[in-house]
Design a protein that fits this description.
The chain has 421 residues and is an alpha/beta fold. It contains 16 helices and 13 strands. The structure holds pyridoxal-5'-phosphate. Pyridoxal-5'-phosphate (PLP) binds next to helix 5.
Length: 421
Amino acid sequence: MNCSRLHGDMEDERLSEMAQNMEGSRILSIAGSVRKMIAEGKEVAPFTVGDFSPLHFEVPQKFVELAHQALDEGQTNYPPAAGLAELRTALAEWMKQRYELDVGAEGIIVGSGARPVLYASFRLFLEPGDGFAYGVPAWNNHYYVHLNDSEGIPLVGNAESRFLPTAAQLEKEIHRIRVLILNSPLNPTGTCFSAEELGAICDVILHENAERRNDGQKPVMLIYDQVYATMTAPGVEHVHPVQLRQEMFDYTVTLDAISKSLTGTGLRLGWMAIPPSLAAPVVALIGHMGAWPARPIQAAVAGLFEDHDGLDAYFSDLDERIHVRMEILKRRLSEMRPLVDFVEPQGGIYLSTRFNLFDKIGAKTNEEIRLWLLNEVGIAVVPFQAFGLEEESGWFRISVGAVGCDDIEAAMDRLEAALKH
Ligand SMILES: Cc1ncc(COP(=O)(O)O)c(C=O)c1O
Protein backbone atom coordinates (compact mmCIF):
# COMPACT_ATOMS: atom_id res chain seq x y z
CA MET A 1 0.00 0.00 0.00
CA ASN A 2 3.02 2.20 -0.14
CA CYS A 3 3.39 4.76 -2.90
CA SER A 4 3.92 3.08 -6.23
CA ARG A 5 6.57 3.67 -8.82
CA LEU A 6 5.24 5.54 -11.81
CA HIS A 7 6.86 3.19 -14.29
CA GLY A 8 6.10 -0.15 -12.69
CA ASP A 9 8.90 -2.70 -12.76
CA MET A 10 9.90 -1.97 -16.34
CA GLU A 11 13.14 -0.09 -16.36
CA ASP A 12 13.39 2.27 -19.27
CA GLU A 13 16.98 2.89 -20.23
CA ARG A 14 16.14 6.32 -21.59
CA LEU A 15 15.37 7.52 -18.07
CA SER A 16 17.72 8.60 -15.32
CA GLU A 17 17.81 6.45 -12.21
CA MET A 18 16.04 9.22 -10.34
CA ALA A 19 13.19 9.24 -12.89
CA GLN A 20 12.95 5.45 -12.96
CA ASN A 21 12.39 5.38 -9.23
CA MET A 22 10.06 8.36 -9.06
CA GLU A 23 6.95 7.73 -6.97
CA GLY A 24 3.52 9.17 -7.61
CA SER A 25 1.53 10.79 -4.79
CA ARG A 26 -0.61 8.21 -3.01
CA ILE A 27 -2.88 10.98 -1.71
CA LEU A 28 -3.58 12.34 -5.18
CA SER A 29 -4.23 8.87 -6.51
CA ILE A 30 -6.82 8.18 -3.77
CA ALA A 31 -8.36 11.62 -4.31
CA GLY A 32 -8.60 10.95 -8.06
CA SER A 33 -10.53 7.70 -7.54
CA VAL A 34 -12.86 9.43 -5.05
CA ARG A 35 -13.58 12.22 -7.53
CA LYS A 36 -14.49 9.57 -10.11
CA MET A 37 -16.93 7.88 -7.70
CA ILE A 38 -18.60 11.21 -6.91
CA ALA A 39 -18.87 12.02 -10.63
CA GLU A 40 -20.60 8.64 -11.08
CA GLY A 41 -23.22 9.74 -8.55
CA LYS A 42 -22.02 7.79 -5.49
CA GLU A 43 -22.53 9.37 -2.08
CA VAL A 44 -18.99 9.86 -0.76
CA ALA A 45 -17.69 12.38 1.79
CA PRO A 46 -14.39 13.62 0.33
CA PHE A 47 -12.26 13.81 3.48
CA THR A 48 -9.19 13.06 1.36
CA VAL A 49 -7.38 16.02 -0.13
CA GLY A 50 -5.55 18.80 1.70
CA ASP A 51 -7.36 21.24 -0.54
CA PHE A 52 -10.22 23.68 -0.09
CA SER A 53 -13.41 23.47 -2.06
CA PRO A 54 -14.26 27.03 -3.18
CA LEU A 55 -17.89 26.07 -2.49
CA HIS A 56 -17.11 26.05 1.23
CA PHE A 57 -14.04 28.27 1.60
CA GLU A 58 -13.52 31.45 -0.41
CA VAL A 59 -10.32 33.45 -0.82
CA PRO A 60 -10.63 37.04 0.50
CA GLN A 61 -12.76 39.23 -1.77
CA LYS A 62 -10.09 41.90 -1.60
CA PHE A 63 -7.63 39.44 -3.13
CA VAL A 64 -9.91 38.97 -6.14
CA GLU A 65 -10.27 42.74 -6.58
CA LEU A 66 -6.54 43.38 -6.33
CA ALA A 67 -5.70 40.60 -8.80
CA HIS A 68 -8.22 42.00 -11.30
CA GLN A 69 -6.78 45.46 -10.81
CA ALA A 70 -3.22 44.24 -11.46
CA LEU A 71 -4.35 42.59 -14.69
CA ASP A 72 -6.25 45.72 -15.74
CA GLU A 73 -3.06 47.68 -15.16
CA GLY A 74 -1.26 45.37 -17.57
CA GLN A 75 0.98 43.60 -15.05
CA THR A 76 1.76 40.76 -17.42
CA ASN A 77 5.54 40.86 -17.77
CA TYR A 78 8.18 38.89 -15.84
CA PRO A 79 8.31 39.64 -12.13
CA PRO A 80 11.75 40.03 -10.51
CA ALA A 81 13.22 36.59 -9.72
CA ALA A 82 12.84 36.93 -5.94
CA GLY A 83 9.36 38.46 -6.14
CA LEU A 84 7.91 41.98 -6.39
CA ALA A 85 9.70 44.36 -4.02
CA GLU A 86 6.44 45.47 -2.38
CA LEU A 87 5.45 41.84 -1.81
CA ARG A 88 8.77 40.94 -0.16
CA THR A 89 8.54 43.99 2.06
CA ALA A 90 4.93 43.25 3.06
CA LEU A 91 5.69 39.60 3.87
CA ALA A 92 8.83 40.51 5.84
CA GLU A 93 6.90 43.04 7.94
CA TRP A 94 4.06 40.61 8.53
CA MET A 95 6.40 37.82 9.67
CA LYS A 96 8.26 40.17 11.95
CA GLN A 97 5.08 41.31 13.58
CA ARG A 98 3.45 37.89 13.82
CA TYR A 99 6.35 35.52 14.53
CA GLU A 100 9.14 37.84 15.69
CA LEU A 101 11.18 36.64 12.73
CA ASP A 102 12.99 39.53 11.08
CA VAL A 103 14.76 38.50 7.85
CA GLY A 104 14.00 41.83 6.13
CA ALA A 105 12.75 42.03 2.53
CA GLU A 106 16.11 40.64 1.34
CA GLY A 107 15.44 37.40 3.20
CA ILE A 108 12.04 36.76 1.58
CA ILE A 109 11.97 34.83 -1.70
CA VAL A 110 8.68 33.93 -3.32
CA GLY A 111 7.85 30.93 -5.47
CA SER A 112 4.81 29.40 -7.12
CA GLY A 113 3.55 27.80 -3.90
CA ALA A 114 5.46 26.34 -0.97
CA ARG A 115 6.80 23.46 -3.08
CA PRO A 116 9.41 25.30 -5.20
CA VAL A 117 10.86 27.05 -2.16
CA LEU A 118 10.73 23.78 -0.23
CA TYR A 119 12.69 22.08 -2.99
CA ALA A 120 15.10 25.01 -3.18
CA SER A 121 15.72 24.81 0.56
CA PHE A 122 16.81 21.17 0.25
CA ARG A 123 19.10 21.95 -2.68
CA LEU A 124 20.74 24.71 -0.66
CA PHE A 125 22.10 22.37 1.99
CA LEU A 126 21.95 18.70 1.00
CA GLU A 127 24.74 16.83 -0.77
CA PRO A 128 23.97 13.29 -2.03
CA GLY A 129 24.06 10.90 0.92
CA ASP A 130 23.56 13.61 3.57
CA GLY A 131 21.33 12.83 6.53
CA PHE A 132 17.84 14.25 6.07
CA ALA A 133 15.62 13.85 9.14
CA TYR A 134 11.88 14.21 9.21
CA GLY A 135 8.95 13.26 11.37
CA VAL A 136 6.69 10.38 10.41
CA PRO A 137 3.85 10.65 9.63
CA ALA A 138 4.31 13.80 7.56
CA TRP A 139 3.50 15.14 4.16
CA ASN A 140 5.75 14.17 1.23
CA ASN A 141 9.14 14.05 2.99
CA HIS A 142 9.77 10.48 1.92
CA TYR A 143 9.52 11.63 -1.71
CA TYR A 144 12.03 14.41 -1.06
CA VAL A 145 14.56 11.96 0.36
CA HIS A 146 14.56 10.31 -3.05
CA LEU A 147 14.60 13.54 -5.06
CA ASN A 148 17.65 14.73 -3.14
CA ASP A 149 19.45 11.40 -3.11
CA SER A 150 19.79 11.85 0.63
CA GLU A 151 19.92 9.43 3.53
CA GLY A 152 16.43 9.47 5.06
CA ILE A 153 16.30 9.55 8.87
CA PRO A 154 12.65 9.07 9.85
CA LEU A 155 11.65 10.06 13.39
CA VAL A 156 8.56 7.95 13.88
CA GLY A 157 5.84 9.41 16.07
CA ASN A 158 2.92 7.83 17.88
CA ALA A 159 -0.43 8.86 19.30
CA GLU A 160 1.14 9.64 22.71
CA SER A 161 3.44 12.27 21.14
CA ARG A 162 0.50 13.50 19.00
CA PHE A 163 2.54 12.01 16.12
CA LEU A 164 5.11 14.82 16.44
CA PRO A 165 8.84 14.06 16.56
CA THR A 166 10.41 14.70 19.98
CA ALA A 167 13.68 16.20 21.20
CA ALA A 168 14.61 12.79 22.68
CA GLN A 169 14.25 11.11 19.29
CA LEU A 170 16.23 13.86 17.63
CA GLU A 171 19.04 13.65 20.14
CA LYS A 172 19.66 10.00 19.24
CA GLU A 173 20.19 10.83 15.55
CA ILE A 174 21.54 14.37 15.67
CA HIS A 175 25.14 13.51 14.73
CA ARG A 176 23.95 12.05 11.40
CA ILE A 177 21.67 14.94 10.48
CA ARG A 178 22.42 17.74 8.05
CA VAL A 179 18.85 18.90 7.47
CA LEU A 180 15.82 18.49 9.72
CA ILE A 181 12.39 19.38 8.44
CA LEU A 182 9.57 20.09 10.86
CA ASN A 183 5.99 20.97 10.08
CA SER A 184 3.58 22.56 12.55
CA PRO A 185 0.57 22.46 12.49
CA LEU A 186 1.31 19.05 11.08
CA ASN A 187 -0.15 17.55 7.95
CA PRO A 188 -1.61 14.85 8.31
CA THR A 189 -2.29 14.91 12.05
CA GLY A 190 -3.61 18.40 12.83
CA THR A 191 -1.30 18.64 15.85
CA CYS A 192 1.11 21.43 16.84
CA PHE A 193 4.35 21.77 18.77
CA SER A 194 4.06 23.50 22.12
CA ALA A 195 6.69 26.11 23.01
CA GLU A 196 8.26 23.59 25.37
CA GLU A 197 8.46 20.78 22.79
CA LEU A 198 9.85 22.97 20.01
CA GLY A 199 12.21 24.77 22.40
CA ALA A 200 13.68 21.41 23.47
CA ILE A 201 14.23 20.47 19.81
CA CYS A 202 15.96 23.81 19.18
CA ASP A 203 18.23 23.16 22.16
CA VAL A 204 19.36 19.84 20.68
CA ILE A 205 20.17 21.59 17.38
CA LEU A 206 21.98 24.49 19.05
CA HIS A 207 24.05 22.20 21.23
CA GLU A 208 25.06 20.08 18.23
CA ASN A 209 25.88 23.14 16.12
CA ALA A 210 28.09 24.59 18.85
CA GLU A 211 30.12 21.37 18.78
CA ARG A 212 30.23 21.30 14.99
CA ARG A 213 31.44 24.88 14.89
CA ASN A 214 34.39 23.88 17.06
CA ASP A 215 35.09 20.92 14.77
CA GLY A 216 34.68 22.95 11.57
CA GLN A 217 31.72 20.85 10.43
CA LYS A 218 28.62 22.05 8.58
CA PRO A 219 25.71 22.78 10.92
CA VAL A 220 22.30 21.15 11.22
CA MET A 221 19.82 23.29 9.30
CA LEU A 222 16.16 23.41 10.26
CA ILE A 223 13.51 23.79 7.59
CA TYR A 224 10.37 24.91 9.37
CA ASP A 225 7.27 24.40 7.26
CA GLN A 226 4.46 26.45 8.72
CA VAL A 227 1.99 26.63 5.86
CA TYR A 228 -0.90 26.05 8.30
CA ALA A 229 0.43 28.46 10.96
CA THR A 230 -2.50 30.87 10.82
CA MET A 231 -5.00 28.06 11.40
CA THR A 232 -5.12 27.10 15.03
CA ALA A 233 -7.80 25.72 17.31
CA PRO A 234 -9.07 27.89 20.20
CA GLY A 235 -6.42 28.20 22.91
CA VAL A 236 -3.57 26.93 20.71
CA GLU A 237 -0.72 29.27 19.78
CA HIS A 238 1.57 28.58 16.83
CA VAL A 239 5.23 28.81 17.85
CA HIS A 240 8.29 29.58 15.73
CA PRO A 241 11.85 28.39 16.51
CA VAL A 242 13.41 31.88 16.32
CA GLN A 243 10.72 33.29 18.60
CA LEU A 244 11.72 30.67 21.19
CA ARG A 245 15.51 30.72 20.70
CA GLN A 246 17.00 33.77 18.94
CA GLU A 247 20.20 31.79 18.17
CA MET A 248 18.16 29.60 15.81
CA PHE A 249 18.04 32.51 13.32
CA ASP A 250 21.22 31.43 11.49
CA TYR A 251 20.05 27.82 11.15
CA THR A 252 16.38 28.24 10.24
CA VAL A 253 14.63 28.42 6.90
CA THR A 254 10.91 29.13 7.22
CA LEU A 255 8.39 28.14 4.59
CA ASP A 256 4.94 29.61 4.22
CA ALA A 257 2.29 30.05 1.53
CA ILE A 258 -1.16 31.42 0.81
CA SER A 259 -2.24 27.97 -0.35
CA LYS A 260 -3.68 27.08 3.03
CA SER A 261 -3.82 30.39 4.93
CA LEU A 262 -5.96 32.06 2.25
CA THR A 263 -7.48 28.76 1.06
CA GLY A 264 -5.95 29.51 -2.35
CA THR A 265 -4.21 26.25 -3.25
CA GLY A 266 -4.63 26.95 -6.97
CA LEU A 267 -3.25 30.48 -6.82
CA ARG A 268 0.31 29.25 -6.34
CA LEU A 269 2.18 31.64 -4.11
CA GLY A 270 4.54 30.56 -1.35
CA TRP A 271 7.67 32.02 0.17
CA MET A 272 10.84 31.27 2.06
CA ALA A 273 12.18 33.41 4.90
CA ILE A 274 15.92 32.86 5.19
CA PRO A 275 18.92 34.68 6.67
CA PRO A 276 19.56 37.27 3.91
CA SER A 277 23.19 36.18 3.48
CA LEU A 278 21.90 32.81 2.14
CA ALA A 279 19.30 34.24 -0.25
CA ALA A 280 21.27 34.64 -3.50
CA PRO A 281 21.43 30.96 -4.57
CA VAL A 282 17.70 30.53 -3.84
CA VAL A 283 16.84 33.50 -6.04
CA ALA A 284 18.99 32.01 -8.81
CA LEU A 285 17.43 28.55 -8.47
CA ILE A 286 13.84 29.85 -8.51
CA GLY A 287 14.86 31.92 -11.55
CA HIS A 288 16.38 28.89 -13.35
CA MET A 289 13.20 26.89 -12.69
CA GLY A 290 11.02 29.85 -13.64
CA ALA A 291 8.96 28.98 -10.56
CA TRP A 292 7.61 32.46 -9.91
CA PRO A 293 4.02 33.15 -8.98
CA ALA A 294 2.13 35.07 -11.66
CA ARG A 295 2.66 38.80 -11.35
CA PRO A 296 -1.00 39.77 -10.70
CA ILE A 297 -1.11 37.16 -7.90
CA GLN A 298 2.01 38.70 -6.36
CA ALA A 299 0.56 42.19 -6.58
CA ALA A 300 -2.69 41.08 -4.93
CA VAL A 301 -0.91 39.26 -2.09
CA ALA A 302 1.26 42.33 -1.48
CA GLY A 303 -1.84 44.49 -1.05
CA LEU A 304 -3.45 41.94 1.22
CA PHE A 305 -0.46 41.43 3.51
CA GLU A 306 -0.05 45.18 4.02
CA ASP A 307 -3.43 45.15 5.79
CA HIS A 308 -2.74 43.19 8.99
CA ASP A 309 -6.14 43.89 10.55
CA GLY A 310 -7.97 42.75 7.42
CA LEU A 311 -5.90 39.55 7.35
CA ASP A 312 -6.52 38.83 11.01
CA ALA A 313 -10.26 39.17 10.49
CA TYR A 314 -10.10 36.70 7.60
CA PHE A 315 -8.00 34.23 9.61
CA SER A 316 -10.39 34.39 12.59
CA ASP A 317 -13.38 33.71 10.41
CA LEU A 318 -11.58 30.80 8.74
CA ASP A 319 -10.57 29.34 12.11
CA GLU A 320 -14.18 29.48 13.20
CA ARG A 321 -15.37 27.61 10.11
CA ILE A 322 -12.76 24.91 10.61
CA HIS A 323 -13.60 24.74 14.31
CA VAL A 324 -17.31 24.18 13.66
CA ARG A 325 -16.48 21.24 11.39
CA MET A 326 -14.03 19.75 13.88
CA GLU A 327 -16.56 20.03 16.69
CA ILE A 328 -19.11 18.02 14.71
CA LEU A 329 -16.51 15.36 13.92
CA LYS A 330 -15.33 15.18 17.53
CA ARG A 331 -18.86 14.92 18.93
CA ARG A 332 -19.97 12.26 16.49
CA LEU A 333 -16.76 10.21 16.63
CA SER A 334 -16.73 10.32 20.45
CA GLU A 335 -20.12 8.62 20.42
CA MET A 336 -18.63 5.73 18.41
CA ARG A 337 -15.74 4.99 20.77
CA PRO A 338 -13.95 2.61 21.17
CA LEU A 339 -14.25 1.47 17.53
CA VAL A 340 -13.28 4.97 16.47
CA ASP A 341 -10.93 7.41 18.17
CA PHE A 342 -9.06 10.64 17.38
CA VAL A 343 -6.27 12.90 18.58
CA GLU A 344 -7.47 16.33 19.73
CA PRO A 345 -7.11 18.67 16.72
CA GLN A 346 -4.89 21.72 17.31
CA GLY A 347 -4.36 23.31 13.91
CA GLY A 348 -4.63 23.02 10.15
CA ILE A 349 -7.60 21.24 8.60
CA TYR A 350 -6.86 17.68 9.68
CA LEU A 351 -8.03 15.22 12.27
CA SER A 352 -5.97 12.13 13.14
CA THR A 353 -8.66 9.48 13.31
CA ARG A 354 -8.32 5.87 14.31
CA PHE A 355 -10.73 3.42 12.73
CA ASN A 356 -9.96 0.41 14.87
CA LEU A 357 -12.16 -1.86 12.78
CA PHE A 358 -9.85 -4.83 12.32
CA ASP A 359 -12.03 -7.24 14.32
CA LYS A 360 -15.32 -5.57 13.45
CA ILE A 361 -14.99 -6.08 9.69
CA GLY A 362 -12.34 -8.81 9.68
CA ALA A 363 -9.67 -6.54 8.18
CA LYS A 364 -5.93 -7.06 8.49
CA THR A 365 -4.68 -3.86 6.88
CA ASN A 366 -5.44 -0.16 6.82
CA GLU A 367 -6.08 -0.51 3.11
CA GLU A 368 -8.90 -2.99 3.73
CA ILE A 369 -10.42 -0.58 6.26
CA ARG A 370 -10.02 2.30 3.81
CA LEU A 371 -11.84 0.36 1.09
CA TRP A 372 -14.61 -0.69 3.49
CA LEU A 373 -15.12 2.93 4.58
CA LEU A 374 -15.15 4.06 0.97
CA ASN A 375 -17.35 1.38 -0.56
CA GLU A 376 -19.67 0.43 2.31
CA VAL A 377 -19.96 3.75 4.16
CA GLY A 378 -19.17 6.43 1.59
CA ILE A 379 -16.31 7.96 3.58
CA ALA A 380 -13.05 8.71 1.79
CA VAL A 381 -9.99 9.03 4.04
CA VAL A 382 -6.22 8.71 3.62
CA PRO A 383 -4.27 6.11 5.62
CA PHE A 384 -1.17 7.27 7.46
CA GLN A 385 0.87 4.99 5.21
CA ALA A 386 0.53 7.71 2.56
CA PHE A 387 2.50 9.86 5.01
CA GLY A 388 5.22 7.32 5.61
CA LEU A 389 3.83 5.53 8.69
CA GLU A 390 3.96 1.89 7.67
CA GLU A 391 2.23 0.23 10.64
CA GLU A 392 -1.23 -1.32 10.24
CA SER A 393 -2.71 0.44 13.25
CA GLY A 394 -5.88 1.96 11.80
CA TRP A 395 -4.79 5.62 11.74
CA PHE A 396 -6.16 7.84 8.98
CA ARG A 397 -6.25 11.51 8.02
CA ILE A 398 -9.60 13.27 7.81
CA SER A 399 -9.47 16.63 6.01
CA VAL A 400 -12.32 19.12 6.38
CA GLY A 401 -11.29 21.41 3.50
CA ALA A 402 -13.81 20.14 0.97
CA VAL A 403 -16.87 19.42 3.12
CA GLY A 404 -19.71 21.38 4.66
CA CYS A 405 -21.25 20.70 8.08
CA ASP A 406 -24.18 18.83 6.51
CA ASP A 407 -21.79 16.56 4.60
CA ILE A 408 -20.02 15.69 7.84
CA GLU A 409 -23.26 14.95 9.71
CA ALA A 410 -24.50 12.78 6.84
CA ALA A 411 -21.19 10.88 6.68
CA MET A 412 -21.26 10.32 10.45
CA ASP A 413 -24.88 9.07 10.22
CA ARG A 414 -23.77 6.51 7.64
CA LEU A 415 -20.77 5.47 9.74
CA GLU A 416 -22.85 5.09 12.90
CA ALA A 417 -25.41 2.96 11.07
CA ALA A 418 -22.70 0.78 9.49
CA LEU A 419 -20.99 0.20 12.84
CA LYS A 420 -24.27 -0.88 14.46
CA HIS A 421 -24.56 -3.93 12.18
C1 LIG B 1 2.89 20.71 5.17
C2 LIG B 1 2.80 21.17 3.76
N1 LIG B 1 3.81 21.87 3.23
C3 LIG B 1 3.77 22.31 1.97
C4 LIG B 1 2.68 22.05 1.16
C5 LIG B 1 2.70 22.52 -0.25
O1 LIG B 1 2.05 23.72 -0.41
P1 LIG B 1 1.85 24.38 -1.85
O2 LIG B 1 0.56 23.85 -2.38
O3 LIG B 1 1.82 25.84 -1.58
O4 LIG B 1 2.99 23.98 -2.72
C6 LIG B 1 1.60 21.31 1.66
C7 LIG B 1 0.47 20.98 0.80
O5 LIG B 1 -0.39 20.19 1.11
C8 LIG B 1 1.66 20.87 3.00
O6 LIG B 1 0.67 20.17 3.54
